[in-house]
Amino acid sequence: MSHADPNHWTILRLLKAKPGGYVSGTFLASRLGLSRTGIWKHIQNLRALGYEITSHPKEGYRLEALPDLLIPEEVILNLNTSWLGHSYHYFKEIGSTNDQALSLASQGAPHGTVVVAERQTAGKGRMSRVWESPSLHGIYFSTLLRTAIPTQEAPQCNLTAALALTRVLSRDYGLKASIKWPNDVLMEGRKVSGILTEMQSDQDSTRFLVLGMGINVNQQPRDFDSSFPYPATSVAMEGGQPVMRQILLIRLLRELETLMDLFLAQGFSQLLEELESRSHVHGRDVRVHMPHEEVTGTVMGFTREGALRIRTGRGEESIIWAGDVTRVEGS
Question: I need a labelling partner for 48 at 20 to 30 A (CA). Which of 161, 180, 248, 318 fits?
Fold first, then answer.
């Protein structure tokens, strides 16, 4: 779903503009050029989305509470981005937001298209892992990027997105988060978010890239599968209170646009210093699993392209472009 009836948006704005007060059905009908029955049908549609709206035969309608849903009515109206999320596709349930975004990309969807789901039944992580996506607890979304970049730079989009999330959690929620190269965000050493990039390319340049993020927002310990290979946490668990997911998503999309603009215009090196300062592995002894070998050593930092720099036990420097950090000492 990308758009709604303009009258639908207008009624919602008018109800929000009068917090705690009634808006008469006659006023709404006159303002929109509809019958009062037409207004009532729109109110019923809003109620079906989860808006709590009371009605009074003489006073009209009053908005009592907003749903904590990632619906366009709550996200698009408050997004204020230049290009990200203007095409917004919302699903109550879907297999994978990445798969849907890839499908939309093949159909010509524009740069900045966002696909959001309240629940995924086949959420994907790196290395064929499953991303647990319980309904109404987390944020699961994918973004389509059509700006052509060299294929070897595609993993930098993971780190850019991770940096955007750590900024938002720190600035807006007072929570310390760190980045576990190449695609995880941790809080107190436990995973709060994973990022997966998939792309279609021509030779050395991407045709389009889909950036998917899963964020644990309001999960509690009982919501996590005990067989999950990494300890997990959520924003609510670390902050001690529930979080409005739609507000977190809006803030994240704004920050992601800001950092993606910087990355695409000036290069990843502009983000390198902050990335190292927010890194979970910088300066630590790690083990990195790669397809044909494992490397252990101390992380010295990152290259200007975002690759991991490791000093091995022999004192040699190893540059790792792709791998999975399976152990971090002291975390």
Answer: 248
Element (H, E) at 230: none
pLDDT in tens, 128-167: 555 566 678 899 999 999 988 888 788 889 999 999 999 9
Multiple choice CATH, 72-277, 3.30.930.10, 3.50.50.60, 1.10.1610.10, 2.120.10.80 = 3.30.930.10
Q: How far is CA 283 from the centre of its chain?
A: 28
- Mean pLDDT, rounded, for 10-28: 94
pTM for the model:
0.85
From edge to edge, which strands make up the β-sheet containing 324-328?
317-320, 308-312, 294-302, 285-289, 324-328
Handedness of CA 57, 63, 69, 75 (dihedral sign): positive
Q: Are 327 and 287 in contact (CB under 8 A)?
A: yes
Q: Is 268 helix (H, G, I), strand (E, B) or coil?
A: helix
